[in-house]
Amino acid sequence: MVDFQKLKEIIEQNETFLLTCHVNPDADALGSEIAFAAILKKLGKTVYIVNHSETPEYLKFLDYLNLVEKYEPEKHDRIIDETDVLVAVDFNQSDRVVSMEKSFLKSPALKICIDHHEEPHKIFDYLFTGTEFVATGEIIYDFINETKIIELDENIALNLYSAIMTDTGSFRFERTTAKTHLIAAELLKFGLQPIEIYDKLYNQNEKSKIILLGAALETITTAHGGKVAYMTITRKMLDDAKADESEVDGFVNYCLSIKGVRVGLLFLEVKKGIKISYRSKGKIAINKLAAEFEGGGHTNASGSRIYGGTLAEYQPKIIKAAKKYLD
Fold first, then answer.
1. Are 300 and 280 contacting, i.e. CB atoms less than 8 angstroms apart?
2. Residue 304 in contact with residue 294, Cβ under 8 Å?
3. In CATH, what class is 207-325?
4. Model confidence pLDDT, tens digit, residues 109-125
5. CATH architecture of 4-201
6. Which stretch of DSSP H or E encloses residue 162?
7. Could you tell me the pTM of the whole model?
8. How distant is the alpha carbon of residue 60 from its chain centre?
9. pLDDT tens digits, 22-74
10. How far apart are CA 67 and CA 40, in angstroms?
11. Residue 35's closest CA among 67, 71, 1?
12. Residue ranges per domain, the chain?
């Protein structure tokens, strides 16, 4: 049970807040950040949103407050050090903020976490979390709904709807519930247009992303009797397509779309190592596989980032280790 009254109390007792989210933000991370920032702004608080990554082009329409900044040590370290409250949104492990980690950890500010992933690090003063939530955006919605701390408006509704819609795979993932649809219905009452939102989130791709997707699909390979499918994206493929690593978001789901596949993996070569996305169907706890390789997440959707690791070293190990989770 999330103690929303305590969260309200923290807001009321402090004046300056800095919000941040995980590397390569998705709509849940960014939408939840902006929605929570809007709550604080309505209450007259001083608010900063500072992220390690640039905001992806397709998500910029969510930032109606024009608050989101990319982290620059010389500009933001003092703010991180002097703010009253640091808010971790949609992540619960400090390495997920990459370049900001050192400043985040050493700051004397009160540190709180608003998130829906498993196994939070013990670095926070307060956790407002729960894996029963389909998205961090749902936590923000419930906080507003239960405490009546502010009145919802169209812009906050847009951000929360985008957060929940994307993190449930457009309401098709297994963890989607009746409550999820009821929340969506309440948010749509603010005049949101689902077709327009979906179009902005999924149908405004850069040409580079489509070129990269074509190359990535050609790498799909199956293993373990066709129950595992994996995709590989190298630095050369990114460079050839003139694509950014953030454009890979969602590619792993193509592996799961193959008949008979129960586990989908995406191996991405990044500048300082590799990133792996893990997906599964049914009761296959893919987060346990991710945990073996410096990662974590949800039962059916997880990820890991291995600094200094190589595809040649880790890809065979992870594919081999996946076998034991198929049973």
1. yes
2. yes
3. alpha beta
4. 999 999 999 888 899 99
5. Alpha-Beta Complex (3.90)
6. helix 154-167
7. 0.89
8. 15
9. 998 999 999 999 999 999 999 999 999 999 999 998 999 999 999 999 999 99
10. 12
11. 67
12. 4-201, 207-325
